[in-house]
Amino acid sequence: MSKPLSIHRLRSLVDPLLVQGPLHPSAYAPIFDLLTGCNLLKLGQQLHAHMALRGLEPNAFLAAKMVAMYASSGDLDSAVFLFRRVENPNQLLFNSMIRAYTRYGCSMKTIQVYCRMHRFGSNGDNFTFPFVLKCCADLSDIRMGRCVHGVSLRAGCELDMYVGTSLIDMYMKCGELCSARKLFDTTSERDASSWNALINGYMKVGDICAAESLFRRMRCKNIVSWTALVSGYTQNGLADKALSVFDEMLRAESEIKPNWVTVMSILPACAHSAALDRGRQIHDYTRRTGLDSNPLIQIALAAMYAKCGSLVDARRCFFNLKADERSSVAWNTMITAYASHGYGTEAVSAFEEMIKSGVCPDDVTFTGLLSGCSHSGLIDTGLKYFHSMKAVYSVEPKVEHYACVVDLLGRAGRLVEAKELIGRMPMKAGPSIWGALLAASRKNRNLEIAEMAARELFVLEPENSGNYVLLSNMYAEAGKWMEVDNLRATLKIQGMKKSPGGSWIEVNGKAHLFLGGDTLHPQAKEIYMLLEDLPSKIKAAGYTPDTSFALHDVSEEEKEQNLTTHSEKLAVAFGLLNTNPGVALRVTKNLRICGDCHTAIKFISKIYQREIIVRDVNRFHHFKDGFCSCRDYW
DNA sequence: ATAGGGTTAG
């Protein structure tokens, strides 16, 4: 596309038309072309109104241009209105409308327009099929896809590269990998797009090897190919690989540089690994390249910072957004950020502010809000919002909202109410529901309800060893060693391994991972010395180790020993040893933080005057001056 | 005028 003209230049083209009488449609068409993609809705509307006032009905050709203009300016309704008024649509107009609907993600509508086009006796052309095929892909409608494939052959489009790529993409997204591959292998002309469609498809189904081998064999790699690899790794949970490909990309001698989509793909990898320093580097990169002016980037940055433990930076990114850029997703990001950090009150006020600014909440908003209330013990507030979801905001509660409320009630010890709520749910209770109930029974030491929840979970997610471990721990607490042995035997028979507890901490941009009882680290000796000194220091400050968290059938002394070597303590000790006084420590754990460690870290934060931020699988704990942001409610 | 993108409970 040519460079967009300045608003003044466009004004000077439109204004003379507005003072003249009706002209031939061909006089207006080029103006609408110029307005397309300029996001100057007002100017387009003015011209349209001028024509309407003079009784000028656009013909199909002109309507096509106007539909494109409206669609590109965010006004789909006007585009549809125009389209419907044209009695004799031509191919161009159909294409324009199909493109408009596709752009707004209205796949069903696109298919409807395509069908109508058929009834007008047209097969479509090389500009029709790519969009229609994309919709088939989005709908996973393989039958429609095959049908469109057939029509595209009849229309003689089989050699068109755009159509070819769209076909490959459609087959990949519908899970017909073989058909896609066959098309790819038999196409004589292939460009980067067809390769990229395949790579993305393989990544989507989790076939990393196939995607990698294609990428390595590719000779015409472009920015999309690199991004496909990065986002594929991220989506498959391979954050480290995503980060190293990103580095490789920066090093690669080609001209290819990360664009905004690449950045969007790499940020979740930073978040996953809690790689705050890497995240900051990427933030710097967006500032250097001007990508940071993109509101989507700011939102993704906010989410990254929140997940890396820096709520301050997350807020800063959010406040970089102008008021009209604060979409529901932006608000959701902040509400969820507050919730996960245990700032329920702030989550609630962010929600209220969102409503005040006229942004409609959606289901994600309420999962964030409810989990925020739950983490902070705002029981009544949470219940109030839950009940207002549908009544006030027309958002249908989904299973995840029920899970939040089960958690909200359960955490507060209202297990019976939680159980009753599960019974009244309009949908089937899934793992999230029973998982919340199990965790709540653990917290309240209610073995009976725990057994009930666990029974459901063993069926729903038999491969999740965490559930067995949790119940087994509860049996251990209750001294029911027989049941403990039974569960352990079950675990063993099924060949399941307890996922090892691990924590990591980033120091000078490098992550250091510790497993429970780890002695492999080069600094292990110093770390253990520091930890061995801790109990006496802490005991002097009034701390008693809570051995109920050791959960082994061993003597009290041994239990205490095991506690000192939990991975989160090792990571904290390492942090104390390797950072300057006063620097905040950020530790990430792959499981839930242990209760004894929680107490110990509170004391450490006081004794060593350090802010310590621990992210566990559920939430953040901010330790400072002997207190935790969760106020021991977790 | 093809391919890639942000927010989600235990």
Short description:
The protein is mainly α. Helix content is 65%, strand content 4%.
What would your notes on this structure say?
The chain is mainly alpha-helical and 634 residues long. Among the domains are: 1-122; 326-386, no CATH class; 406-493; 502-628, no CATH class. It is 65% helix and 4% strand. The protein contains 33 helices and six strands. Strands 2-1-3-4-5-6 form a six-stranded mixed sheet, with helices on one face. β5 and β6 (627-628) form a beta hairpin. The protein is elongated, with a radius of gyration of 29 Å. The two termini are 55 Å apart. The relative contact order is 0.04. The structure holds one DNA strand of 10 nucleotides.
Gross morphology = elongated
Percent of residues in helices:
55-70%
Mean pLDDT: 87
Largest sheet: 6 strands, mixed
| Structural classification | mainly alpha
Rg over alpha carbons: 29 Å
**Beta-strand share of residues:** under 5%
Q: Tell how many strands the DSSP assignment holds.
A: 6
Major beta sheet, strand line-up: 2-1-3-4-5-6
Low-pLDDT stretches are 550-560
Distance linking N and C termini: 55 Å
The total count of helices amounts to 33
List keywords for this structure.
4% strand, 634 residues, mainly alpha, 6-stranded mixed beta sheet, single chain
What are the SSEs and their pairings?
Layout: H1 7-19, H2 25-35, H3 41-53, H4 60-72, H5 76-85, H6 91-103, H7 107-119, H8 129-139, H9 142-154, H10 161-173, H11 177-186, H12 192-204, H13 208-217, H14 223-235, H15 239-251, H16 260-273, H17 276-289, H18 295-307, H19 311-320, H20 328-340, H21 344-356, H22 363-376, H23 379-393, H24 399-411, H25 415-424, H26 431-443, H27 447-460, H28 465-477, H29 481-493, E1 502-507, E2 510-515, H30 524-540, H31 556-564, H32 567-578, E3 585-589, H33 595-607, E4 612-615, E5 620-624, E6 627-628
Parallel strand pairs: 3-4
Antiparallel strand pairs: 1-2, 1-3, 4-5, 5-6
Helix pairs in contact: 1-2, 1-3, 2-4, 4-5, 4-6, 5-6, 6-7, 7-8, 8-9, 8-10, 9-10, 10-11, 10-12, 11-12, 12-13, 12-14, 13-14, 14-15, 14-16, 15-16, 16-17, 16-18, 17-18, 18-19, 18-20, 19-20, 20-21, 20-22, 21-22, 22-23, 22-24, 23-24, 24-25, 24-26, 25-26, 26-27, 26-28, 27-28, 28-29, 30-32
This protein binds one DNA strand of 10 nucleotides through helix 8, helix 10, helix 12, helix 14 and helix 16.
